Amino acid sequence: MMDLVDIDLLWPIVGAVVAGAVIGMEREYRASPAGFRTHILVCLASAVLMLAAVHQIRWLSDTPRELIRIDPVRMAHGILTGIGFLCGGVIFREGFNVRGLTTAASLWMTSALGILFGVGFYGLAIGGTIAAVVVLAALTLAEALLPRRRYAEIKVRYRRDSGQTPAGFRALLASHSLKPIGISQSAEAGIVAFAATVEGYREDAADALVQALLADGEVEGFDCAPHRD
């Protein structure tokens, strides 16, 4: 019979709760789809299941010991496979953007940390928790300072009799320092539309383009959606 205050059971559970809470607080602060409680439960569940696998001989007390084959790796494989379904639930598309990838990765990492606590790799689990928090939080500032290409999806709808062409649409974008990566066309009910993924997106360039489109009487409507992480 397991002792409820057994130190071998207590510390992994405490460590898993703390690790899940630390990572969950960072995700909660950023209003991610999975926050504080979700990360704690993921880490705790992973730790508890691994504890059950590691101490299997203690709850198979009626089975002859020579017949017991302990293989915690199978439990770890099942946990990480199952967590994939939960991770998939936090990834969703919002317009032209895909959100939730970082949260899904943090859930997967949290599950891995729970597994490490469950098997007693405390040093690796604590180090992994610190590294995860650094990657999620501390490096956000450095990421903001690093130069990087920014993209946006732009779609403009003109009257069919406007005479607008792909070359003209490309020139419009170029005049606002936006480089199109391929231009698609469509037409329906008196409307011709041009859409492109553009490189070099900046807020000031986008504002200038929007003002130009609003002042163009041949424009029936437009969409401008910057890509987000």
What can you tell me about this protein's structure?
The protein is α+β, with helices and mostly antiparallel strands. The chain folds into two domains: 7-145, no CATH class; 151-226, ACT domain (Alpha-Beta Plaits), CATH 3.30.70. It has helices spanning 7-29, 36-54, 56-59, 72-88, 101-119, 122-145, 166-174, 203-215; strands at 92-94, 97-99, 151-159, 179-188, 191-199, 219-226. Strands 4-5-3-6 form a four-stranded antiparallel sheet, covered by helices on one side. It has a two-stranded antiparallel sheet with strand order 1-2. Helix 1 packs parallel to helix 6. The two termini are 49 Å apart. The relative contact order is 0.12.
List keywords for this structure.
229 residues, alpha+beta, Alpha-Beta Plaits, 2 domains, 4-stranded antiparallel sheet, two-stranded antiparallel ribbon, 8 helices, 18% strand, elongated
Short synopsis of the structure:
With 229 residues, this protein is an alpha+beta fold.
**End-to-end distance, in Å?**
49 Å
* Uncertain spans: none
Rg, Å, rounded: 26 Å
Shape: elongated
Mean pLDDT score, rounded? 84
What amount of the residues lies in strands? 15-25%
Major sheet: arrangement of strands: 4-5-3-6
- How many domains, as an integer? 2
Number of DSSP E strands: 6
Summing up helix and strand content along with how strands pair, one would put the structural category as alpha+beta
The level of helicity is 55-70%
Order of helices and strands: HHHHEEHHEHEEHE
Major beta-sheet overview: 4 strands, antiparallel
